Amino acid sequence: MGLRLKHALLALLLVVLAGCTSAAASGPPPTGGELRIAMSAGNIPFPSTPPNEGYEGYRFVGNNIYDGLTRLNLDQSTTLPTPQPSLAESWTTSKDLTTWTFKLRQGVHFHDGTAFDADAVIFQFDRLRTKTSPYYDSKSAASAAAAFRYFKSWRKVDARTVQITTTQPYAWLVWDLAGIFFPSPAVVKKYGNDNYNQHASGTGPFRMTKYVDGEEMELTRNDNYWGGRVKLGRIVLYPQPEPASRLSMLQSGEVDWAEVPSPDSVQQLRNEHYQIEMGKYPHGIMPRFNLFRTPFKDNLKLRQALNYALDRQGTAALLNNVGYPATEYVYDGNPSYTKATQGYSYDVAKAKQLLAEAGYQPGQLTITMAYPTGGSGNMYPDTMMQKLQADFAAIGVHTNLRPLEWNTIISIGLDGLNAKQWSDIDILWASPAAGMIPTGYSATFFCNRPGGLPNAAGLCDPKIDAALTAASQQSDVASQYRYLQQMMDVALKNAYFLFWMHDLNLRVLSPKVHGYVQPQSWWVDFTQITVEED
């Protein structure tokens, strides 16, 4: 091989590597230790705004690299977290709940050293909402659309004040703002939207110091963080979609934190003095019926039949009780929970009767259900789906299982089950943060999504729309939840979902990890964690 060819190949290799990683390994971790995490995601979340890979992307990447104008108080476990000041140190609203004015925190800088101010807020809003903006990002805009549902206009009042006007009275704007992150405008302008992920720069407690797509991300403490220097020195993220792989990495000492490892390993891990973290929080497995067409459109009894056919206790037992049966969309104890209508129990005889009343004899109905092989917050899909298939077979319904990659499931939720390529799916797996934030209901329960698109599963009930809209317009929190309970009651009576399981948020930590709080949320506060250094 000639010298010139060698040099050319070397140059090409360097270009490829530069496109895969933002920095080389950073050496020994700073004081506070290094927390290595085996994620359930199939890939490292893109550090975009918002990140991908579902709420696991928010948990490990979004909330560490970035801040929103508000932030959930995840440093406690006694109550559902609520929005608190973050990049906005205070706010006021008009009496009619349509005009919100935010005072921005002073002295905040992005990781690249540039200042955060009102211009940075307007830049990001335009980047996600204004198609004529030179920096409009169509991919991020689609992912962030739900958070902007009620935005009408926004403007800079002065360098540290922004004002947002909503399309209708809207009490939940501060919830939406917790998930709208702010990148450095200078970095976006320098690298463009297509290359931004390799150079992500926010204002958060950690800065991205290494990113190898599909393999690893390294987040190092931001020593100049406006909220004060956090304790933990570094976070290293590894995508491991298989529970057995996460368990193996934990037991071999490769990681200090494993998301949802194999459930049958819990007692062994407890005996080995690992920290076993579980507890009720807003997350369930609530598959969605395709209501655009038969067999589930306008067939309440069929939807009820399948809900009664589910042996939820049996599913929980298979999972070593790291989840528990769902009687409705949210768990008992969540403020949106309704006791007005009794939830679904396991009743094979009733399921068979309802199946016949729905127009089907045993063996006549075959349905297709799409589900993920892993990914953020999906518990143990393969085991659960085999049990579901057996439960439905017991009443004479055959189920074709269609395993898909997690981001494909998310794409189906964006495209809708009326899209030609997905229209043959009868039931779509869903793992919502059921009741974590009230704004989270909008994309799933409303007749229409942002932009006028129909509900992704075809759900459209005027009573639900009226209750959810009324809830969002109440300044009194108790009144908000009374309307949400009405909404849940309608959803339950009409069996709009396959109410299946609630998760207990199993994660296992090394004994070397200290200061962790298990919140009632999908998201986590990493600012108080430390890891014993070897």
Any overview of this molecule?
Pfam families: SBP_bac_5 (PF00496). One of its GO terms (cellular component) is ATP-binding cassette (ABC) transporter complex. Residues 82-441 form the Solute-binding protein family domain. The protein is an alpha+beta fold and 534 residues long. The protein folds into three domains: 26-65 and 204-279 and 506-534, D-Maltodextrin-Binding Protein, domain 2, CATH 3.40.190.10; 67-185, Dipeptide-binding Protein, domain 1 (Alpha-Beta Complex), CATH 3.90.76.10; 284-503, Dipeptide-binding Protein, Domain 3 (Dipeptide-binding Protein, domain 3, Roll), CATH 3.10.105.10. It contains 16 helices and 22 strands. It has a seven-stranded mixed beta sheet, sandwiched between helices. Helix 9 packs antiparallel against helix 11 and helix 15 runs antiparallel to helix 16 (477-493). The longest helix is centred in the first third of the chain and has 18 residues, at 3-20. The chain is globular and about 70 Å long. Residues 1-25 have low confidence and may be disordered.
Calculate the terminal CA-CA distance, rounded to whole Å. Answer: 46 Å
Could you tell me the mean pLDDT?
Answer: 93
Report the CATH C-level class of the largest domain. Answer: Alpha Beta
Architecture of the largest domain in CATH? Answer: Roll
Beta strands, count: 22
As laid out across the biggest beta sheet, the strand order is: 8-9-10-1-11-20-12
Shape: globular
Residues in β-strands, percent: 15-25%
Low-confidence stretches: 1-25
Radius of gyration, whole Å: 24 Å
Approximately how much helix is present in the residues?
25-40%
In DSSP terms (H or I, runs of 4 or more residues), the helix count works out at 16
The structural domain count equals 3
Remind me, CATH topology of the largest domain? Dipeptide-binding Protein, domain 3
Question: Structural class given helices, strands, pairing?
Answer: alpha+beta
Largest sheet: 7 strands, mixed
